[in-house]
């Protein structure tokens, strides 16, 4: 009988041995130069190599190792993330990474929800955007040097998207020139802000301003929460962590209550609204700048939808080449899972989507840059379209990426359920993107209202010219047109693909508008009529957003062609674009069939062409995920390792499980031993 | 400055105060007697009260508390689950719960993946099913008294659904009359079996039997893994935990390797195949009994799909009545979320589905009982249909329940992401149901093959009578029929609803069969032709399964009507059945439109009727989830508490977060303090 305290590991356990032969073969068979596609994705060779230097620096640094997270308690994970924060600051100093872009690249390479994310992403930008020049001069140097750590507290226990419903109150006391912050109810408790629970010393708090019993709306206030000496909460402040979440273990999302906490008058961020010493309140001029910040954040979110989905697909495609199951014929070796049609049908449209979203992210960033340039000349004309479009794209991309990660996980069979696959964490960490920076459903309503308004205008005033992406709303004759893609070949025509998406979107907008009228004719006022079409409004917003994504993918390929991109790269991108276009018609086929735009004359070649595209992508699948160029550190997955030594990695990582520290697990002596045979 | 070590909690924090007024109002307005529906769901008043006694006993027992799991490390959770195992055994003795049903009820009430789940659910049944009488006499008393704890090890690191691909080998040594178990490769490592890692002393191991270099197929062997004295692994055995998973923290899913481990000849379970002392191998007679066990497990899984989805819907519906957001009109109070059409459209179809699956579970259990009765008279005629049907239903119900839980979570906004909502754990613990007991996709292939075979037979031999659920495959004339539901009212006709589902299923089977022929005409052999239609086969299996679910729901209501169930209950069940039927037509609308079965003449009234049904269910929504009769313990959710004191509960539970034990979190001194302002 063995009494060794360590398991007897198999000698084959070598994660760094020769690469998996199937992956080597797959890589050798790619139809295009992978490296060129990588350059294309990351904006050129120089930028790619810069990102690689940072990624490799992080990947080789033991402080930034990620796989230990699987085995740590929540508290240990939080502590480890603070260690990473300190090291991040050290590296910035050591390597002179003083530009915002360098720091962002570094954070992205660290690839964890660090408790300074809100400090950098919300606290500092809010001071910049809403603080007066003096306030910026006072707080920005402190914040940028991390001499204070801040966060952003808007959401409350009982209040989310409806900002005017916030209950936290800031009452102006003229006698002392102070605001008195208070949380009058339980539901007024600030709840969810990242890094609020334990890390932050300061916070921008959104509260209802009250001056002499007069309600002046919700405004931002700078509040110190914790002592800079000993980190204890200040008097009147109750602050803590809101407890475990689906993921985000490293982040101390927090709660915060005020018991008549006094702050000086100049702690209200007064770039727009102001309160004078005597309590005079001046209303803010309408600020369009805050919309720009929103669009900037959404562009970032759309880019992340692409990269996160790309990670999931990378893991699933590589593992599906390594994993084998069922021989095609009795006696033959088992087949690579990726050879199965249903596996291809699950993964390749997501691969295509990751590329599609990449180009959508580029498009929105470009739109944003153009807007910022125009804004300097007081040109706000593109704002409504940009605001509405980015809202819809944020929703569509985050929904599809969320569901897509789960599809990838499920496609990995049993091992996808192991955290060591990386996929459960990828999913659980990603899904809040559907809620933050604007709940997806609320975002869809915004876009749908915009589309309905323009459609109404165009109907009322024929000949009106609408801006780029929405110009199809002008032409209600489009509704009478039918698809003419009656062969597989015709379905590869981008003009026909776009025609289908435009037609679907217009049809849904028109139906929605008609239903709105019908509901009002039944006696509802407009408010109630809108309530009755809300489900349709979500469909409208998605349909328009699909069109925008496809349009950008098609345009991006045209531009690449014009700028001399090589044929093999253009060919594979065109195949992905085709699959994106056709897959999402197939997925919502009812929309296209319902009013006769398509019939089985068109859908049969559509289905056949999709099968053909899956076959076309198969030989390039590994190369297409390799082109995303993720390090093993970035993937954090035993199934997705670049060398394909999947089972060796899974086995080795599992040995780190704390339950494996001893042969006999905790609890045996108290709970199991008493009833086992030996005690009879 | 405060230096208190405990947060200053608001006085309003009282989880046991008066119930939420909105929930009280909702409950008062139900159109039907909730208690009667509860009796109907759980099989009568007596059975309901019995289950309630057990549920309440568990809910009030501190050992069985569930909410501490949110705050424990994996090791602590495993330890706690062993504590529950011991207590479970104590309660069985104390309350004389000696029947299998009583013990099952108790385990279900404890509602956790205990490390004896496999012992009870797989180890003992395998001894019963595959052991000889002597083997049963030897091991069953020990197992039933927990003097040994066993599990079931089939899956390997590199091998899942394809059993013949298993690599673990059992070589017969005639000289000693022993089998020598060995794991020749890394991928041969047993991987995933529950309770294998740390808990089990014994295991039924599936291994390739080799006698004198002759391969004799995969067989089950009884192997002792750990000493009954000190729980150390026996010589030659490497065993441990496979590490963290998406959930299942309480379960020590394990790995297991053999290094030439010898077991006596009579440790092969020999009810069917046998190895004589001299090494003579006798092949097993075909056993249909194992199919019956499979169907039994699937019936259980389908029932669990219903109850798990019901829990998620209970949480989401209650919270959506408590939670308010956005006033309908400026100045009005904010609205209950459940009043929003899109929220109803998300949740009510799932509510209807939970009821639908309940009746499907009943149906499969009944089918199973009939089969077992027939089997005693050597009547195996229903086996093929039962086997295929249950495979499809297992897949459909687990897929829909999985996605449905996530829909419920997302519908709870930000708080749905908190583990305290109960929904992340519910989801992550549930989803393996899509993989275990037959991977859903593989199950769909099985059903599709069965349907294609019968369809082929019916085509070849007109007039052939096919069994109940598949009899529609006889009538290819059904393909020429069209929907005539051109009004909202007509869509409520169950015959028309069923006609639509049958027509869709037949259409997909026929298309699939035609494509198979077409692929073969292109020169593929049958094996490759089947590969080319695999995506369509999954659609076929789902379409048939939807039909079976609806058919059973319709039949169940008819039977209830015939047996005198009260009108209010029948009315609300009919509304749920209608919503189930119409929602899943709307969800797959393309299938019904593609070949002209429906057109917009029918879909417009369809959409309108769905909106009407959502409105009809709204006033009964809380009563319909209350009828599932879950205790707060069973739900384990701050958002789903019966008294609706959601925010109080969320706040109180969050205080237990280990990070809140001290005001200043671990890591502050080492990692944050050094760079904060005070140190300048």
From TrEMBL, chains A, B:
**Annotated localization:** Peroxisome
Segments forming domain Acyl-coenzyme A oxidase N-terminal? 34-149
Q: Name one GO biological process term.
A: fatty acid beta-oxidation using acyl-CoA oxidase
Question: Could you tell me which SUPFAM superfamilies the record lists for this protein?
Answer: Acyl-CoA dehydrogenase C-terminal domain-like, Acyl-CoA dehydrogenase NM domain-like
MF annotations from Gene Ontology: acyl-CoA oxidase activity; FAD binding; fatty acid binding
User: What family, per the record?
Assistant: Belongs to the acyl-CoA oxidase family.
Protein name per its UniProtKB record = Acyl-coenzyme A oxidase
Organism taxonomic ancestry: Eukaryota, Filasterea, Capsaspora
């Amino acid at each position: 009988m063995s009494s060794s305290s360590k398991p007897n590991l198999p000698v084959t356990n070598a994660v760094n041995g020769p690469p998996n032969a199937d992956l080597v073969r797959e890589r050798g068979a790619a139809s295009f130069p992978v490296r060129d596609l990588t350059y294309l994705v990351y904006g050129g060779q120089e930028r790619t190599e810069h990102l690689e230097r940072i990624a490799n620096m992080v990947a080789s640094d033991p402080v930034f190792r990620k796989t230990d997270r699987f085995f740590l308690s929540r508290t240990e994970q939080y502590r480890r993330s603070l260690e990473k924060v300190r090291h991040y600051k050290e590296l910035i100093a050591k390597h002179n990474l003083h530009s915002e872009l360098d720091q962002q690249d570094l954070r992205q390479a660290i690839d964890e929800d660090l408790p300074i994310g809100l400090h950098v992403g919300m606290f500092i930008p809010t001071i910049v955007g809403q603080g007066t020049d003096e306030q910026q001069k006072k707080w920005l140097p402190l914040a940028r040097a991390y001499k204070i750590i801040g966060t952003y507290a808007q959401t409350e226990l009982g209040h989310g998207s409806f900002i005017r419903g916030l209950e936290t109150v800031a009452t102006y006391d003229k006698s002392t020139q102070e605001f008195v912050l208070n949380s009058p109810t339980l539901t007024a408790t600030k709840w969810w802000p990242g890094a609020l629970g334990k890390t932050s010393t300061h916070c921008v708090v959104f509260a209802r301003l009250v001056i002499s019993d007069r309600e002046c709306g919700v405004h931002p206030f700078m509040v110190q929460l914790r002592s800079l000496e000993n980190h204890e909460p200040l008097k009147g402040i109750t602050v803590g962590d809101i407890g475990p979440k689906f993921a985000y273990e490293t982040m101390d999302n927090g709660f915060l209550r005020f018991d008549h906490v006094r702050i000086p008058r100049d702690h209200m961020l007064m770039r727009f609204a102001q309160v004078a010493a005597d309590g005079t309140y001046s209303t803010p001029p309408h600020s369009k700048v805050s919309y720009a910040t929103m669009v900037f954040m959404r562009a970032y979110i759309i880019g992340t939808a692409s990269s996160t989905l790309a990670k999931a697909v990378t893991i699933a495609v590589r593992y599906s080449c390594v994993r084998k199951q069922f021989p095609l014929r009795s006696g033959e070796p088992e087949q690579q899972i990726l050879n199965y049609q249903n596996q291809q049908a699950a993964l390749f449209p997501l691969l295509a989507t990751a590329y599609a979203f990449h180009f959508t992210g580029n498009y929105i960033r470009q739109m944003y840059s153009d807007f910022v340039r125009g804004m300097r000349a007081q040109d706000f004309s593109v704002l409504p379209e940009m605001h509405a479009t980015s809202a819809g794209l944020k929703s569509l991309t985050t929904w599809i990426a969320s569901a897509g990660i789960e599809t990838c996980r499920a496609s990995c069979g049993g091992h996808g359920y192991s955290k060591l696959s990386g996929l459960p964490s990828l999913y659980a960490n990603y899904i809040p993107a559907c809620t933050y920076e604007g709940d997806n459903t609320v975002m869809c309503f915004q876009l749908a209202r915009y589309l309905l308004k323009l459609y109404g205008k165009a109907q009322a005033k024929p000949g009106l010219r609408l801006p780029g992406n929405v110009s199809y709303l002008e032409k209600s004759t489009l509704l009478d047109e039918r698809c003419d893609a009656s062969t597989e070949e015709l379905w590869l025509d981008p003009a026909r693909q776009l025609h289908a998406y435009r037609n679907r979107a217009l049809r849904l907008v028109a139906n929605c508008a008609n239903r709105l009228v019908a509901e009002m004719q039944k006696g509802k006022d407009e408010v109630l009529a809108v309530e009755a079409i809300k489900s349709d409004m979500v469909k409208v917003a998605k349909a328009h957003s699909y069109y925008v994504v496809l349009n950008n993918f098609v345009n991006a390929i045209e531009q690449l062609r014009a700028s001399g991109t090589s044929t093999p790269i253009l060919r594979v991108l065109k195949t992905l674009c085709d699959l994106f276009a056709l897959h999402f018609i197939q997925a919502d086929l009812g929309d296209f069939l319902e009013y006769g735009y398509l019939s089985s004359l068109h859908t049969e070649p559509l289905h056949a062409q999709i099968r053909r595209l899956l076959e076309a992508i198969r030989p390039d699948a590994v190369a297409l995920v390799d082109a995303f160029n993720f390090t093993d550190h970035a993937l954090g997955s035993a199934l997705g390792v670049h060398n394909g030594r999947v089972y060796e990695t899974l086995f080795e990582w599992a040995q780190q499980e704390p339950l494996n520290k001893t042969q006999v697990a905790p609890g045996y002596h108290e709970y199991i031993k008493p009833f086992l045979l030996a005690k009879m």
